[in-house]
């Protein structure tokens, strides 16, 4: 069983552009966003996972992308410090939620750090992205805070502005990624660590196929990533296609909506 934190997109909108996927000129439908989000939350519950909710805040339309709010390992919580001013108010909501739900070791990052957008826990290590949002100095900060080795990876293509748009952790020792998203040094590092990694096609990454959540067996990913679904089946996983097309207008999909709480605290 996994434990997730999510934020209902009650105030979802694309009123500004802070990534290549966002176009304020395109209309959005908050009702449709909520319906698609409800489907994802209900799926997690049907699969036997636990889902906690953080209340959305008016004026913070990107709060639905809960993965960006923090990184949680063994109950220790490093809350995000967002690079763009439009999202900085979200950190306050996350700090309050974790403090109010029994987490004893909670603090906000010193350096720009966008939570699981750029920090993906992979078994005994954390894979950490930089290049567009997270400050490279945040990697050492996370390593010291969590007591885990952090593998720095440099993103070079603005379409992959967060690590979770270019790489997904399928199991402790299995990843899927898009090599074209990374610097040459980072590609070599991934090849050394994961020689049997799944390599995604350009067609699947173009539909946000790598913004996926795996519980070690089921992999929930955008339904348009059809080739990737076939690759996952060949590796023994059970892919489940999701339609989060409305939320994709803000530059996020399955993983962006899902913050994993690893060995979280108890409510009091």
UniProtKB/TrEMBL annotation:
Q: Which GO terms describe its biological process?
A: L-arginine deiminase pathway
One GO molecular-function entry: arginine deiminase activity
Q: Does the keyword ATP-binding apply?
A: no
> Mind telling me which Pfam families this protein's record contains?
DDAH_eukar
Sorted keywords for this record are: Hydrolase
Keyword NAD (UniProt): no
Know the name of this protein?
Answer: N-Dimethylarginine dimethylaminohydrolase
Which species is the source of this protein? Amycolatopsis tolypomycina
């Amino acid at each position: 069983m996994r434990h997730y934190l999510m934020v209902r997109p009650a105030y979802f909108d694309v009123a500004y552009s802070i990534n290549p996927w966002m176009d304020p000129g395109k209309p959005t439908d908050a009702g449709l966003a909520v319906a698609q989000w409800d489907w994802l939350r209900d799926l997690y519950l049907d699969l036997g996972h636990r889902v906690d909710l953080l209340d959305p805040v008016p004026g913070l339309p990107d709060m639905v992308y809960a993965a960006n709010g923090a990184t949680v390992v063994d109950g220790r919580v490093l809350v995000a410090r967002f690079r763009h001013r439009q999202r900085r108010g979200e950190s306050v909501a996350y700090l309050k939620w974790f403090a109010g739900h029994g987490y004893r070791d909670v603090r906000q990052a010193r350096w720009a750090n966008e939570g699981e957008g750029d920090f993906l826990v992979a078994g005994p290590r954390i894979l950490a992205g930089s290049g567009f949002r997270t400050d490279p100095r945040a990697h050492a900060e996370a390593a010291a805070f969590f007591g885990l080795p952090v593998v720095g990876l440099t993103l070079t293509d603005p379409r992959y502005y967060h690590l979770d748009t270019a790489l997904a952790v399928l199991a402790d020792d299995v990843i899927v990624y898009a090599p074209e998203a990374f610097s040459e040094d980072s590609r070599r590092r991934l090849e050394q660590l994961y020689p049997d990694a799944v390599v995604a096609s350009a067609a699947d990454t173009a539909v946000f196929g790598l913004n996926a959540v795996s519980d070690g067996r089921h992999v929930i990913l955008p339904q348009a990533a059809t080739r990737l679904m076939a690759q996952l089946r060949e590796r023994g996983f059970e892919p489940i296609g999701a339609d989060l097309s409305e939320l994709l207008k803000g530059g996020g999909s399955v993983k962006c909506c899902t913050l994993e709480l690893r060995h979280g605290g108890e409510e009091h």
